[in-house]
């Protein structure tokens, strides 16, 4: 069974590292539009935008994976619009879009299970390109609806739990 | 009564069935792939098949319904955990569904032979039963099935004196063809009882004996068959008597396969191809709306650009044309909107037939009345509304309205009345289903709920009558003693509730033992458009549905009172005390004004009371196209949905019901 359905990647930068997602998930690359914030949302949910008529949430991957917890947003900030397996449109904020890469499936390393700020279940694997490492994200897993709801509830309710126990 | 055109209903059923089959297939294929099936999946499968069964019975597809019943039965055992999911089960279920499709097709086109049906059904049942641990159940099941089949025939054979259903009833014709194929030895007299008076005297065998054997009925029709083989046999039989008015001297010539086809084609059900309406997926209409939205945005950008032009001549020419485009866009938008709206008649028209048939099979007399058929409703709601209404109606007929004898004894009119009404009130659609039957036996419902662990003793003792009546919506609760083809497995009322909630509506039930029950369903008028008022809090704008707004005011200092520790403020308005909700604290935005007297208070309707929302300013009032927010994400507190604004940004719509829950 192929772990990766498409071997073309769109690579982008989060902080200093290069990450990749399968090109067939990508719908559009756009600059930062007017984002309507959602009250009470987690910090990594910047709000919602209109993506081809759909109300799409904008998620800052840098905040989501604690790569940069206080990023700046300018009209030049890049959003990659992706479509998930279950046909939801979601915007991902990244630092910069780098390139397209063809990857060789044989040279894909499994993600190490250690101290990474991104848990290994969110990764499809690592890929070595010359001396660079490309971290291949499992976008369907990261953007899974239940997962997102669970996480946003956790971060949302965490202080509440404290308040009651104190 | 001129008779219903059953084909019209069959057409509706067929369209629906196709959709359901598609859903089932998707679920099953997925189950096969993943080799697992969770409870929710099983439940949804079960409901799908349940719907197929119920609806097919109502369009007199008895054989199909009986088979669907068996599959439903099997799924019920899966659902209740009597059987557990095994790898090969998905495959078998797919096979069962395929068989079901085949039977549907054959029964619709009247090509279903009883023999074939029986063998198919038994083969399927055997396979299904291979999963049950005790093999002797197979026998029981098959017996049970045979008996039930009789039942079905009993129930569904046209007994109407006028026999309006005769010609098109699948059941009857299956019999007729059974005779033709000389596989069944039903006495002719029995058939005549069913309306087949005109029948060739010669038995098919006799006809078959002769090479060119022709049997005649009232008219001689030479058969111009090019080639007649030795074993060809010809049987003639006329249309059944009740349809004589229509084709009085039409004689069916049955010859070999080809002629059988032709001869029957005039009579058999054909899916309408040249109908005046088309079924369009709502998502396509939504797509159209989105495109128009984009057009509006592009238009406003162009308008803005034009206003910055220097050349006055070009500027005014361009503006004129842009105005024209603007008008066309508006018209386009209106027509797309109107595509979604249909009169309630569409919903009501599905009932007389079902009610008539159900009443007949239950031996009850039911008088169905309805009002408000011209009230318009969003098409998207109809799809979700028909099922729950059907369930309520079936339940009312099955459990609500009593038999004529019981009614007579109770001093009521022999025939029960079922009243359905639709009206618009307070920006809502109110649909009522009222019966004058026996009402809901609250003691029994409560006992059942206790037994099923839906409530405990303490709760039971605390419950009001209304709350007890609402228990019928709890999952797995049915007070019916027997599982019938009409209702009674305890699926249904919980589905009613969840379907109505899905549409953003509520259901209420009022019941008086001995006098009947009234179900009141309140729904938003449309799922798509909302009249809203844009309000501003600091830098953020939100949309408030116009329908909840009662009034707005700039409060005077003496109108604001505080309760306890200054955090609970109330607005004293005339004779009322209305709690004040500061929207900026809920939505966590920085407002322009902190003092209530500097801003505005909007008094709105909430779930049980009025509340006053504190905002900085109102903006304009306009129509918005509602888009769900939780499709992509969880719903935010106090937000009911989203919309794309004229400038392409997203606006959030405030849900006043939700806001109160925090308080």
Main sheet summary of chain A: 6 strands, mixed
Strand order of the largest sheet of chain A: 8-1-2-11-10-9
Poorly predicted runs of chain A are 156-166
Number of domains of chain B: 5
Radius of gyration over C-alpha positions of chain B, nearest whole angstrom: 31 Å
CATH architecture of chain A: Beta Barrel
If you average the pLDDT of chain B, what whole number results? 72
Helix-and-strand structural type of chain A? alpha+beta
Walk me through what this model shows.
- The complex is a heterodimer of chains A (166) and B (663).
- Chain A is of the alpha+beta class.
- Chain A has a single domain (8-165), classed as OB fold (Dihydrolipoamide Acetyltransferase, E2P) (Beta Barrel), CATH 2.40.50.
- Chain A is 17% helix and 40% strand.
- Chain A contains three helices and eleven strands.
- In chain A, the strands form two sheets. In chain A, strands 8-1-2-11-10-9 form a six-stranded mixed sheet.
- The longest helix of chain A has 21 residues, at 145-165.
- The termini of chain A are far apart.
- The relative contact order of chain A is 0.21.
- Chain B is globular.
- The longest helix of chain B is centred in the first third of the chain and has 29 residues, at 6-34.
- The model of chain B is unreliable at 134-143, 145-268 and 481-490 (pLDDT under 50).
- In chain B, helix 15 (379-400) packs antiparallel against helix 20.
- The A-B interface holds A 33-34, 36-41, 45, 47-50, 52-57, 88-90, 145, 148-149, 152-153 and B 286-287, 289-291, 293-294, 540, 586-589, 627-629, 631-634, 636-639, 642, 644, 647-652.
Concise overview:
The complex is a heterodimer of chains A (166) and B (663). Chain A has 166 residues and is α+β, with helices and mostly antiparallel strands. Chain A has helices spanning 61-64, 139-142, 145-165; strands at 8-14, 17-22, 26-31, 45-51, 54-60, 78-83, 89-94, 96-102, 108-109, 123-129, 132-137.
